[in-house]
Each structure stands twice: as C-alpha cells, then as structure tokens.
Amino acid sequence: MLQKENILLVDDDINILELLQRHLQSMNYHTYKAVSVKEALHVMKDTFIDLLITDIQMPEIDGLQLLKFADEHYPELPKLVITGYPSVDGALEVIKSGAIDYLTKPFTKEELRQAVEKAFEHGESRKTKTINKGGTQKFVNINNEMIGESEAFQKITDVIERVKDNKATVLVKGESGTGKELVARAIHYSGKFSRSPFVAVNCGAIPENLLEAELFGYVKGAFTGANDNRDGFFQAAQGGTLFLDEIGTAPLSVQTKLLRVLQEKELTKVGSRKTEAVDIRVIAATNSDLQQDIKDHKFREDLYYRLTVVEIEVPPLRERKSDIPLLVDKFLRKYGVEYKDRLLKMTPDALEVLKRYDWPGNIRELENVIQRAVIMSNGVITVKELPDTLKFKIDFPQTSFPSLKQMEKEYIQRVLLHTQGNKTKAAEILQIDRKTLREKLK
C-alpha cells in the first residue's frame, strides 16, 4: 500500500486549519496541525514531514521566521504559504524565505490541490541539488540534528551519502556526546529506507539478563514472567534500521546470537526453536576501544569484523571547532523558541569564549551550556551568561612566560622610547615620581 505524504499545517486560525485538514485528507494526504511556530517546531523535530504549509501573520513568532528556519535546517523540505494579506513586497519576502509558492485566502479546494502538487514536484527536483551557503557546503539531516561545515564533518557526510541507500552494517565510533546516534539517524532518514522504522537501543542501559530477550523477543513460558509471546527490537525494526548503542557492553552470549543474526539474516526467540527471517540494517556505536576489548576477551573478534563493514569515526568537538557557530545558532533557535518564545542571538565575545574551550563533553556539553544561557538571559547572550568554568579555562599557548620584573623593564623602555628619553614625561605616563623612575632605571 502506498504511504501517504505527511503535511504540516501551521496557522493560528483553528477554522483555517480544520478546512485545510479536510481538503487534504480527502486528497489522501496525512496532516499534522500546529497553532504556533513553537508547536510546529516540536512536530518537525519528532516527525518526518514531506510538506510545510504555513500562514504568515501569527502572534509572537511569525511564519516568515518559520520559513527561514525551515529553509536553513530542512533545505529539501518544500514550503507553501497561505496569506490573507497579499502584496508584491510580501510575495518577494516569502519567496526569498524559501517558499515555493503562496495562496491567498480565500482559496478553492482545486487551487489548494494544484499548489500542493506543484510544491511536491519542486521538492523532488531540489533533492538532487547541493546545499551551499557562503561557498561552503553544509549538511543538515532530515531531523534537523546534524549540522556542520568543517572538513572532519564533511568526511562523515561523504560516508553517509555512500551508505544511506544500502543495508551494509555500520560501526560508529567516537567519544561520548559527539553525536553517534545522530549519525545513525542521518543514515536512516536521508536514504530510501526512511519511511521504515528506526529503533534505537542502548545496550548498556538494559540489564544483561534481559538484553537477549529484549533484542530477539521471547515466547510464553521462556522464563519467569514471560506470560505472553513478545517480539523484540529486531522484529520492531523489520525493514528499517536497528541502532545498537554501547555495543561493547553486550555480554558474550548476546554477541554470539547477534553474530548469527547478521550472518544468517534470521533469529530465534528466547525459548523457541523456530527461526524467523529478518530484513534490517544494523548500525552499532561505541565509545570504547573494541580492539582492546577483543584482546581482553570481552568482545568477539568475528563480530567486530562483521560490524565494521563500514566504519565511521566521529571526531570530538575540539577537532571541529569551526562547526561551533553553526551548532550554537541551532541551539539558540531551539531553546529560544522553547523557553523565550523568540529567536535569541549571542555576542561575538561570548561566541569566542565557546570557541576557545575544549569541550570534554562534546556537543552534549555545548547544548547544555546554551540551554542554561538561554534560561539566564534577558535577550542577547553575553559572556556574563556563560559558566565560569568556560570563561577561565582557556588554552594558553605553550610558550614560556616572562617574569613580572622583565615585563616592567620592557614597558619602561617602551615609554622612554616614546618620550625620546624625557624622564619627566615618562614618569607622568607611568604615574610615578622621577626618583622612583631613576631607581628602576638603575
């Protein structure tokens, strides 16, 4: 059965929303409604949207702000505007903000149909285009999570482009907080399997004695408490992607069964002898050294090679600092709308502090800092709103530092050079008397 396209409708007029919904549902589209930009952003974050239809005149944050946000963070998403205040200048502003077309209220059902079909046709043509801003390629995934322009980031996006449309097993490596799950989601949602399930499992968060049953399912009576037959995460992800985070924490018994699933494309539920075929892509992630775990007999070597058909190394934030301004802008938009109902800015000095810091907690730490700064800010975020640990933990150059006495000597020499040897003028500049200056010159 052909799946319906998802259309997000944004308007503060409930009557218009209901009218649009009735028309579009009769055309076999699936719709989501939002009465504000803030509500729309929540829907866009959690739901795959094929078309955005928005009004312009709305309280607090208007539709133009939403269009600009969507154009930057969802560049392949077609956008259609409905407005009751048409004008030449308004139309130009709408098109500049990334909309494909706009409808003037009131409009007929047929006019709506034609505009929607045009938007979808235009959206398909845009999918083949490269995203460029300021001459630098920038990648944003379908869920508005991954963003960057650094060379390290581009290497990741290149691999994502190569693997997104096949079901090769992928291992994502990187420190905690670097965004390994975001890479997995980007692979899934940017490829041809995006309409299929994406199931994320944190292997380290499930007790060892339950992990096997949770992954592969179980039958009634398999163990105490197994009162019914139950599918596992593999069955839930059928046809799509299963993301296994912290794979290094999985016990050896689960690793053995996982290896068989990857090799044979079939599994056996706990307590059953019947095998079931599975058709999924597995993406695993780890922040530990699996090769050392192999030496320590904690991880199966054959499973390691089965998982690393494609390997992606996600660099820490300290190695991609040119991405910090983009990430900051993203989090400012996210939490500005959530907490302040508006879009916030940051001063250059505050941004410079963020760029100097080494971010041991990576992107997760940066997001927490921005979240706190937005809460503490009354408007523009300055250095004052940043934590003291960032302001004073600065990486100084690895050079020798002159003593205070040496610096004083060099400064007095500079002043004397400026006054051409005039000690009276030099003493005035230094704000000391001539006797003190003579003593220092000795």
Automatic annotation (TrEMBL):
Gene Ontology BP terms: phosphorelay signal transduction system; regulation of DNA-templated transcription
GO MF, one example: sequence-specific DNA binding
Domain Response regulatory: 6-120
UniProt-listed Pfam families: AAA_lid_14, HTH_8, Response_reg, Sigma54_activat
Sites of 4-aspartylphosphate modification: D55
Highest taxon of the lineage: Bacteria
Span of domain Sigma-54 factor interaction: 146-375
PANTHER family: TRANSCRIPTIONAL REGULATORY PROTEIN (PTHR32071)
Record protein name field: Sigma-54 dependent two-component system-Response regulator
Taxonomic placement: Bacteria, Pseudomonadati, Bacteroidota, Flavobacteriia, Flavobacteriales
